[in-house]
Amino acid sequence: MIDWDDPLSNKQNSKPINTLAESYAKSEVLNRGTKKKNKISEKEANTTESDPVGNSVDNLEEASTKKTAHTAAIGSLATPSQAQKHADAHLKTKAVVASDKRVINGLADVNQLAPFKYPWAWEYFLNANKNHWTPLDINMAQDVHDYQHSLTDNEKHVYENVLAYLTTSDILAMRNIGLAVMEKMTAPELQIYQARQVYEEALHTWTYQHCIETIGLDQGEIYNRYRVVPAINGKIQLANRRLNSVMRSDMDLTNADELNSFVMAYSFFAGIFEGCWFYNGFTPIFSLQRRGLMKGTSEQLQYIMRDEVLHASFGIRVVKQIMLENDVTLDPKAIRDMWDESEAAEISYAQYILRNPILGYTADDHTEQFRFIANRRARQLGFEEPFPGAKNRTPWLDEQANMRKEKNFFETRVTEYQTGGALNWD
Q1: 10 Å Cβ neighbour count for 199?
Q2: CA 207 – CA 170 distance, rounded (Å)
């Protein structure tokens, strides 16, 4: 049974309601001749409950000694001296000003949202909530029929292994944001969007699980593929190696080397893991949708892709802001190595899932599209293009969540990105 009592109340000293009523009645009889004294007490009580924000800085010490009613509530959870110390510290705290905030290593109170220094981060949060959905909102009946009666063995191979990679990747993304990145932010408007991002990564994992379960695949076997399929495992292990360094809670971002490591890891996460691998990773299933197959799964992935557009764009903006505020310059060779490793892992993955091309899509298409998207992400990060001359092999990919209009997406209201309602593929 839920206990609705105030946890700050002192239950042992409180009286039953009927006893309090009787005491009140008796006190009215006994104190009829002392109304003047009662009025003085009432005036003192009102002074005690006055808002300390309204006091001048010179009177803060005086206000704190009168704050007995406020400290009594705190005192039920702490010793009297601790309670007074808590109240005094609260009253003496300097008001938060936007200029005190920083993405990392900030000194402002992380529990106070406004005033905003990064209003764009709040806009990301508001826009993310316009794409609210659950996998149960989308009809998967036709996908069951397609998988059982329409897909070729090669197409089933593509479908199953894309889901096997994505479901593991979203759990990794959830842990990285929730356990590594979010705790290092010192502006609450950034953390609030990242809290939403953690939820979305969990929602994506549910979506893949829902697709796997609905189609009737062996869940244990699909989930275990990232361990036993080298091409999938290679991407996961590369991500783990590049992100594990920032998973430490004791990482000191005032240290130049550790800060550099964090920025490199976040650049990989936002620019490649989410910005390239996720963005390009949906393409094989979208290619099936373009032929009228697996439309329910594709609709699920389109909602996910819209989330990932925000995730990548937000992460890239945070990286650039950290570099600006802390005068960080990354080693060009380290950046080059990051792109080369990621390309090699993507080539291996594409050659496995598309070992036999499916109609309208090949392994070469997939890897060339990765290079094209990588150039875009590099430009957004302010890096040199890693793959000059890469071709846009699947121009229809941007139709799923038009990245060429990212700036407009965050600065204007896009009516398509609204809560509820199925997407129309016609």
Answers
A1: 15
A2: 10
188: which 2 tokens? Answer: 């609450």
Residue 334 Ramachandran class (φ > 0 left, ψ -120 to 50 alpha, else beta): alpha
Residue type, 289: Q
Residue pair 161/352 in contact (Cβ under 8 Å)? The answer is yes
Task: Give how far the C-alpha of residue 191 lies from the chain's centroid of Cα atoms, to the nearest Å.
Answer: 7
DSSP symbol at 397: G
Amino acid at 418: Q
Q: Kindly give, in sequence order, each residue whose CB lies less than 8 Å from that of residue 357, ignoring residues fewer than 6 positions away.
A: 154, 363
CA distances from 35 to 20, 23, 38, 391 (A): 20, 17, 5, 89
Q: What is the pLDDT of residue 116?
A: 83
88 within 8 A of 64, measured Cβ to Cβ: yes
List the structure tokens of 196. 């939403």
Six-digit token string for 89:
């510290």
Average pLDDT, the chain: 77
CA distance 390 to 280: 14
Alpha helices in 327-362 (DSSP H): 332-353
Would you list the DSSP string of 130-165?
GG---GGGS--HHHHHHHHHT--HHHHHHHHHHHHH
Say how many CA atoms lie within 13 Å of 410 toward its Cβ: 19
Distance between CA 269 and CA 257 in Å, rounded? 18
Give per-residue pLDDT as tens, 310-327: 999 999 999 999 999 999
Kindly give, in sequence order, each residue whose CB lies less than 8 Å from that of residue 92, ignoring residues fewer than 6 positions away.
60, 64
245-298 pLDDT, tens digit per residue, is 787 778 899 999 999 999 999 999 999 999 999 999 999 999 999 999 999 999
Please tell me the predicted confidence (pLDDT) of residue 249: 77
Secondary structure letter of residue 11 according to DSSP: T
Q: By the 8 A CB rule, do 424 and 401 touch?
A: no
Cα–Cα distance, 163 to 282 (Å, whole number) = 9
Crossing angle between the packed helical segments 188-215 and 153-175, to the nearest 10 degrees: 150
Q: Is 202 left (phi over 0), alpha (psi -120 to 50) or beta?
A: alpha
Q: Kindly state the tokens that stand for 395.
A: 């121009």
Of 173, 143, 102, nearest to 315 by C-alpha is: 173
Per DSSP, what are the bridge partners of residue 358? 361
Nearest to 264 by CA among 314, 200, 315, 309: 315
